[in-house]
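Record type: monomer structure entry
Structure origin: computed from sequence
Chain ID: A
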Amino acid sequence: MGVLLDASADGKASKLAAAGAQRIHCAAVETRPSMLIRPDACIVWAGEENGTDGLEDALRRWFIPAPDDGSMRGGK
């Protein structure tokens, strides 16, 4: 399970994470920056100021599984 340390105003980063990824624990923090942390403790995104630029891309890359197109099973 990943962790999102959310220092954004109104929990904006947590709302983005909750909308698409189920394997993330969101925690509000008072100090910046907001950070998305993988289960192996690598930081995969850090927000600047109050922004969430790049967070959706990091969520998609690390926490939202790609649709199964059958290629991993030899499908066409």
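Annotation 1: The mean pLDDT is 87.
Annotation 2: The helical segments are 12-20, 55-62.
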